[in-house]
Specification:
The complex is a heterodimer of chains A (514) and B (370).
Chain A: H1 3-16, H2 21-36, H3 43-53, H4 59-74, H5 76-84, H6 95-104, H7 108-133, H8 137-142, H9 146-158, H10 168-182, E1 185-186, E2 193-194, H11 208-227, H12 245-254, H13 256-270, H14 278-290, H15 304-327, H16 333-344, H17 351-356, H18 358-381, H19 383-388, H20 394-413, H21 416-434, H22 440-464, H23 474-513
Antiparallel strand pairs in A: 1-2
Chain B: H1 2-6, H2 17-38, E1 45-49, H3 56-72, E2 76-80, H4 87-95, E3 102-107, H5 108-114, E4 129-136, E5 140-145, H6 153-160, E6 165-169, H7 175-187, E7 191-195, H8 200-208, E8 214-218, H9 219-227, E9 231-236, H10 247-252, H11 265-268, H12 270-273, H13 277-292, E10 295-300, H14 305-320, H15 322-330, E11 338-339, H16 340-356, H17 358-369
Parallel strand pairs in B: 1-2, 1-3, 6-7, 6-8
Antiparallel strand pairs in B: 3-10, 4-10, 4-11, 5-8, 5-9
The chains are: A mainly alpha (514), B alpha/beta (370).
């Protein structure tokens, strides 16, 4: 690596850990943690609020605080997802798929331990990936275009086959419903309105926060009320809870290959500008499920279903900084606000910043790194009081969960209509749960549909105009191969397994006859 | 007033009753005005930004926020309501109560363009809002990627003689979509459109990757890419050029040709386009006027006069204050302000000019939707 980059990295590191700058990161992290503990609020909102207050600041404290805001907010949304089935942000919706079932089995401590470790290590992976990429950032940001984004979406959608919970037909029907729901609102190409039925609320399409709060959190509330379950975990004392933090920490190292693959998925998807923050976690979850084998307990409390999306969700922050710092093009909403703050301070992210202000870039990166670790370590230290919540009687807990869900809806955009939307999707989610229809394909289809639709149009148009040749792009070919593996590997492996079993039975029958 | 005094009770006359009446009258007016602004204290005022945090509209809003809070003595809460190129946010302002609790910033040329779509649900900026003032103009620039092989406007025009020029656009209801057919007709340039590049970042990447030949961006968005030599500015669309631009933007556009005026590229292309000199000037002026409508600060329609006067005056004072202009300069945000009356006139002019191009724009929309 270039000596200038290494020197800047060390200088940035020493600045982050020097007095009093260290305190900026700590304060920013704590503020982000408090803020993001409320469902519906996220680091983008916090940063946007902080812009006018920090307008007179020097660049160094600004970088420290904003880096801490990005890093400090990601993990906290996972806590409410694991404990109460409430996704703090849309990206945490995937955390609850296996996180909440673990809580229901009295393993909240293991789940939080796993999420905190996976989150901290995932962010570390993303950050070191980012640092390693600094000399080639521009090329990396340019390597992906509409055909690659399209194939990435198709690859993600093919994991639906694995997420259908046993019935492929039900899974496909639900996924189709999800794709249809995602089409509501403006056509991104022609600006025509689709399926809005004259409702202004639907012009913007269905927002993920109320939909996920409904399908998962409120559906669970209804189920808890109907089932009259006494506590979330079925236990009444913290001593009765099984699992431990250490078990959660160890699980990440036990499945280190999956952790690494999920981190790569998160980093790459994070680097794609305009792709929603939820995509990385869902694609990683689909991949984990796809590669887990038949004996997995996905959706019923499989630790791999928790560690994969947590790693991807945090690794994506590093990835999202690649186009932001290399070209001044934000990777997501969080980095868009960061970019706005830097611009208001007269800084120009892009090549100029990477040459003239490389130390400041590293201050941002190290602050992000440090805040991710502070958040995870604080999360681990609070495991016991948090796990205790799963032993509280549901009659006392349910009003709190309902209030938290409603606050989440209202904080998101301040629209009462979002609460109504969440309630409607809550009923839908409950009916799906009751009648054993999978809810995950619905979520993943809604998340991936915009990426698929926009890039399908762009790819077809650019191909028609002979601006791209779809079949000669190496990354497209790799993604096609991965998609084919997703589609046919389960069938092939089950046939092979059947054949092997047949041979085994044949040989054991032979043994018996002998 | 004198005649009014003549009707006062006789007992008041020794106290110079006319003067008392005048003082009372002026005090009443002053207290009404004070009430209109003072009635704002208490609950925060909502400021709707019709784009995501981090964009140009968001930057202007957050720059104005502390100054407006000070001027109005009220807390302002900014809310980003992005989607559909600003239409959803504009609808939120339009549909709010006209009680002085909701303000916002809108993209006036964008909304005028969105109104040209058949069955457009977009608010009409001329009718649906109380205009409070203009913050800045949209200074639109045509750009290309640095590896596109297009070095300047002449090389672009040379290429356009061999094949259509490919432009990357957001969607058929955006102001850039309006810019393209008008600019192309003035340059005599054949073109094709790729729609679906949502956000200036997506369009910039499309130009950098060479998927499209040209894109159109506001100078606020284009500045950092031009500064880092990623994008090459080919043509300044709006006229007169460099109005209301920050110093840095002005220097980045030094030597970049303009579309209109005596030295403008459109006049040089008369032989190709077959247009008359008057026709060329009218077209170029029209484009300039469309974008001159700019970024407007608005409130819902039928806002009480006293409240709108209070907001408009505060905005005008803020935008003229040296502290605000200094902060804008630091942030490289160009300010080209107009008071409420001036902004309304510019908006009306823009709408009239845009109407003249209805057939061309509707044809282009139809083509894009096919």
């Amino acid at each position: 690596m270039d000596a200038t980059v290494v020197n800047a990295a060390f200088e940035g590191l020493s600045l982050v850990f020097s007095w009093p700058y260290f305190m900026y990161t700590i304060a920013g992290t704590l503020l982000a943690m408090l803020f993001s503990a409320v469902p519906g609020l996220n680091s983008s909102t916090l940063m946007a609020l902080a812009i006018p207050l920090t307008i007179a600041w020097e660049p160094l404290p600004l970088m420290l605080v904003f880096g801490a805001f990005v890093g400090g907010a990601t993990f906290m949304g996972s806590i409410t997802a694991i404990l109460f089935n409430i996704p703090g942000k849309s990206q945490n919706a995937v955390t609850l798929l296996d996180g909440y079932p673990l809580t229901q089995q009295g393993m909240a401590k293991t789940a939080i331990g796993c999420a905190a470790t996976s989150s901290a290590l995932g962010s570390t992976f993303g950050i070191f990936f980012l640092i390693g990429l600094i000399p080639f950032m521009r090329e990396a940001a340019m390597a992906l275009g509409p055909p690659e984004y399209l194939m990435l979406a198709i690859w993600g959608l093919t994991t639906l086959a694995a997420l259908s919970g046993g019935s492929m037909l039900k899974g496909l029907i639900v996924a189709g419903l999800g794709l249809q729901l995602a089409l509501i609102g403006y056509d991104p190409r022609t600006a025509e309105l689709r399926f809005t039925f004259g409702l202004d609320y639907l012009h913007d399409g269905l927002s993920l926060v109320p939909v996920f709060l409904g399908v998962f959190a409120l559906a669970e509330v209804i189920d808890l009320m109907v089932s009259r379950k006494q506590t979330l975990s079925g236990k009444h004392h913290i001593e009765e809870l099984t699992g431990s933090v250490w078990e959660g920490v160890q699980s990440v190292f036990r499945h280190f290959g999956l952790f690494l693959r999920s981190s790569v998925i998160g980093t790459v998807i994070g680097a794609i500008p305009g792709v929603g923050s939820s995509v990385a976690g869902f694609v990683a979850y689909g991949h984990a499920r796809q590669t887990a084998g038949r004996a997995s307990r996905f959706g019923r409390g499989d630790i791999r279903g928790l560690l994969a999306p947590e790693a991807a969700n945090d690794a994506k922050d590093g990835g999202a900084l690649v186009p932001t710092l290399a070209l001044g093009i934000p990777g997501g909403t969080g980095t868009a606000v960061l970019l706005g703050a830097l611009t208001l301070h007269g800084m120009n992210p892009g090549r100029e910043m990477l040459t003239d202000n490389l130390v400041l870039v590293f201050v941002l990166i190290w602050s992000l790194f440090l805040s991710n670790w502070i958040t995870s370590l604080l999360g681990l230290s609070l495991v016991n009081p948090m796990a205790r919540l799963s032993t509280i009687r549901t009659t006392r807990l349910l009003p709190f969960i309902i209030a938290l869900s409603v606050i989440g809806c209202l904080q998101f955009r301040g629209l009462m209509a979002d609460v109504v939307c969440a309630v409607l999707f809550g009923l839908l989610g409950y009916l799906m749960k009751r009648h054993d229809w999978p809810r995950i394909p619905l979520a993943i289809a809604i998340v991936l549909a915009p990426l698929f639709e926009t890039n399908l149009h762009l790819t077809l148009r650019l191909h028609e105009l002979e601006r791209i040749v779809f079949w000669t792009r190496p990354l497209v070919l790799v993604l096609i191969a991965m998609t084919l593996v997703n589609l046919f590997l389960p069938a092939i492996s089950s046939r092979l397994n059947a054949k092997r079993q047949g041979q085994r039975e044949g040989s054991s029958a032979g043994d018996e006859s002998e | 007033m004198v005649s009014a005094c003549q009707h006062l009770p006789v007992t008041l006359r020794p106290l110079n009753s006319c003067a008392v009446f005048i003082v009372f009258f002026l005090f009443s007016i002053a207290s009404v005005a004070a009430t209109s602004c003072s009635s704002l204290s208490g609950e925060p005022v909502l400021w709707v930004v019709p784009s995501k945090p981090g964009g140009g509209y968001d930057a202007y809003s957050r720059l104005l926020q502390p100054f407006m809070e000070k001027a109005l003595n009220v807390r302002i809460r900014i809310e980003n309501r992005s989607a559909a190129g600003g239409v959803v946010g504009a609808m939120a302002i339009r549909d709010a109560q006209a009680d002085g609790r909701t303000l916002g910033i809108i993209n006036a040329p964008g909304l005028l363009a969105a109104n040209m779509l058949p069955n457009a649900p977009a608010p009409d900026p001329r009718q649906d809002f109380t205009i409070l003032g203009k913050v800045a103009e949209s200074h639109v620039v045509m750009l290309t990627g640095k590896h596109s092989g297009i070095s300047d406007i002449n090389s672009l025009l040379a290429i356009s003689r061999t094949r259509p020029i490919l432009a990357g656009i957001r969607d058929a209801g955006s102001s850039n979509f309006v810019t393209l057919p008008i600019t192309a007709s003035l340059l005599g340039m054949d073109y094709a459109v790729v729609t679906g590049y949502v956000g200036s970042g997506a369009r910039t990447l499309a130009a950098l990757r060479g998927e499209v030949d040209v894109i159109f961006l506001n100078m606020d968005s284009a500045r950092r890419y031009i500064a880092s030599n990623e994008l090459v500015p080919l043509l300044q669309i709006t006229d007169p050029p460099n109005m209301g631009l920050s110093d840095e933007s002005r220097s980045l556009l030094t030597g970049v040709p303009v579309l209109s005026g005596e030295q403008g590229v459109a006049r040089r292309q008369i032989d190709t386009t077959g247009l008359t000199m008057e026709g060329v000037d009218a077209g170029a002026v029209a484009l300039a006027r469309i974008f001159a409508a700019g970024r407007l600060v608005v409130a819902p329609r039928d806002l009480p006069d006293t409240v709108s006067h209070c907001f408009a005056t505060a905005l005008e004072d803020v935008m003229a204050s040296p502290e605000f202009l200094q902060a804008a300069g630091k942030a490289n945000l160009g300010i080209n302000s107009e008071n409420a009356e001036g902004a309304r006139k510019l908006l009306s002019l823009a709408a009239t000019e845009l109407d003249k191009f209805q057939p061309e724009i509707r044809a282009a929309i139809g083509e894009a939707r096919r």
